[in-house]
Each structure stands twice: as C-alpha cells, then as structure tokens.
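writing this on my phone so excuse typos. first protein, seq and then structure
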Amino acid sequence: MTKKLILIVGLIIIVIVFLNYGRSMYMPLVNKLKGKQTVESRIDSIEESVWHRLEKNLGLAGYKMDFPKEIIIAAFKEERILQVYAKDYNGIKLIKEYTFTAYSGQLGPKLKEGDKQIPEGVYNVEYLNPNSSYYLSIKVSYPNAFDKSKTELATISDMGGDIFIHGKSVTIGCIPIGDEAIEEVFLLTQKAMHNTVKVIISPRDFRVNSNYPEITRIDWENELYDIINNELETLPNTNYN
C-alpha cells in the first residue's frame, strides 16, 4: 500500500512538473490541434473583457473612450514589476503595473545564450505572438546596438535571443506576468503598434534607488545604467500599488 501511494504521488509530481515546465514541447501540438490564431483573432476574443478590466485605469490616465495610441513598457528586475505607461500630448501617465510571476538570473545584463539572464537596456517591441507556448507573448528586440557593441563573443547569435514578455508563471530569461496580465499588455501593445513601443528593462527602479549595482563580470555597467536612467527620468515616479 505504501509503495502504491509513493508511486501515485511520484506520478502526480511528474505530471505537475511537466505541465509547468514542458509547455515548449506540448503547446505547439495543442496549438496545431486547436488551429493557429492570428493577432486579430486573439484581439477579437479578449478586447471586451480587457477593456472592462482596464476601464478605470484608462479613465484615470485620460482615456475614457479608447486605448492609448502610444505606450512605454518599463520592467524592473529587483522589484519584479512591469509598468505600462501611456504617452500623448498631455505627457506620460501610468496605466497599470504587474508583478512578475517568475524570475531567473540575477542583476546585470544578458551576455550570452543560456545564461538565464533577463536583458537590461532600452529595446522596442518587434512583434506579437498570438500562439505562444506561454499563452500570449511580446517579442523584445534583444540584442540591441548597445548590446552588440559590448559583446566579446565571436558571433551575434551566441548572445542569445527570443526574449519575450509572456503569460504563465515559468521562465528562463524572459518576463512572465501571468495570463490575465499578458492579455492586457498584449492588447495595449497591439493598439499602439503603429508607433514604436519602447521597452525599458532596468536592474532596479533608479527613480526609487539611484545606486547602480556593481556587476563584476563587466566594466561598462555604469555606461549602460546611465542610458537606462535617462529613459526612466522621462517617466513619472509613481509609487507601486
């Protein structure tokens, strides 16, 4: 009886681990069976519910009838917070912030493939993925020109890539914020994609803590953090919820 119980518990643990960490293997098959979604079909399916969830936030930011046409995304690794700002002729206002649902790596930039680091720098959104293994995802333009100028690797491909903001609660080097949150950020980004959507990823919120972390494996972190800090200074210093 004890052996059977141990076996059952072991199988349950294996299934739970696989469901959480094996998504990259089984979700492509699930998506294939369900049929591929387009960005437009995803937007059609989530827009009404997302609008109701964000209506108060958007109203406070001055958007009572429609979504903003320009947004800025800022992510802070130490605080594990992602913020979305609206930008227009009235200035920049916080719409909403979200908590990371998982985290990998440590403070400091991504330097190579497989180091599990979330990049640090100023990026853009490259595209939206409506068929992500992690529900929905937003592609970040790592490596950027600054990253490439600092690498000591032989080829750019060795720096890694495929950095996304996505759903679910597991990650290696990306920014997960859960399914409901990614619906909101996905839709806000889609509504602003005709403008460049900037993504600032910082080791910490320098508006709150101005001290730059020391990164022992590089000697150019202050140059990088000056660039990031200059971008953060354009954003309102809004307290975390």
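second protein below, same order as before
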Amino acid sequence: MSKLYVVPTPIGNLKDITFRAIEVLKEADLILAEDTRTSGKLLKHFEINTPMQSHHMHNEHKTVGGIVEKLKSGSTIALISDAGTPAISDPGFLLVRACLEAEVDVECLPGATAFVPALVNSGLPNDKFVFEGFLPVKKGRQTRLKLLAEETRTMIFYESPHKLIKTLSHFCEYLGEERQVSVSRELTKLYEETIRGTAKEVLDHYTNKPPKGEIVIIVEGKK
C-alpha cells in the first residue's frame, strides 16, 4: 500500500540515524530530498540506492500535486531534509497536509531533531516550552520580540551564525540583559558546545568569539 514516510536524518553524527530509517529509505520507491547533493552523501554512506527527487522550499508548491498523484497510484515515498526531522523549519508541511487531504497514509518516524538535545542541555525548564524556529528577518521582528517578552514558557529558536549577535542583542533589548539564555552549536558534531548565562553574558562571549555552525537558542520565559 502506498504511503508517505517522513524520515528524520542525522543533524551531524551519522550514527544517529535509526535502523528503521535506513530500512524505509532502502525500500521506498522514491526519496524526496531537500538537497540531493547533501542527501546523496548520506545515502552513499549507508549503501542506499533508491532514486531521489529534489523537494525544497523553492519548488514544493509546484511539485506537491504530482507527488500526491504518484502516491495515489501506489508508490511508497520517503521525505527527508538536509538534517533532522522534515517540516521542522524545513519543507514538509505542505506535502503532509496535501497527502492527508487526499487520504494518503502518512507516517513520521521518530529521530533526530536539533531542538530537543539543546532544550535538555540548557538546564532551563522544559515541562512547558514554545518552539519559535527562525525569527522574522525584518518585517514583524520587533512586533514578535515584544510579544515574546511576555512569554512565560521556555522559548526555542533556530539561528544562523552570522545573525546570532544581532538576535542576542535583540534579546537583551526586548527581553532584558538578565534573561537566561543557552546557545547550543554544532550539536552531535566534533566541536559541539553549549554556552549558558544571561543574555548579556552570552552576547559578550560570541562578540569576542564569532560562532560557526548550526545554532539553537533556548531562552528563559518571563518570571
């Protein structure tokens, strides 16, 4: 029976893929990959020879219809992103929604997601939290930060290294310099690190030591 499998892939360390993920990727008729060059290295490492098709934020609106038709005709398709779980700040939501609307089975496998280890490592309350992903770059950023200043739950953000200083500066400005922050960088990789402290302390650290790699920011909620 046809099905769309949403398959998490490692966020750094290749050993973090599951046996089941490898099995699904090998048995699928087609793999939808955010970047076929990036995913090609992963598939080659695990000797997965399933055909790939590009599926990313710039073409997903155009390709969703055709993919759903393939599924309805009996194909089994696996969706992956460059790293982590698809649809979490990556393409995937539109396709999952379209499949459900077309009554095509969807199954999401458990696996790697960057924000979970970052949240646990932060030492900040994790019984209740809110995932914000990437903040707006320009329009709506100030409005969003003002709203988040009143958020009482722990907040999770993704950020690129060249925008980290700007984001931490905005946290100091809108949330307060004493707000507790934890920045996890290069999770599961050789140079993984987590820096914890007040927003001002963490800002000072990265001002003196410019960051590299993928970044997750955990921010304390308002007390």
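The helical segments are 19-27, 36-45, 60-72, 93-101, 115-122, 141-148, 164-174, 199-208. thats all i got for now
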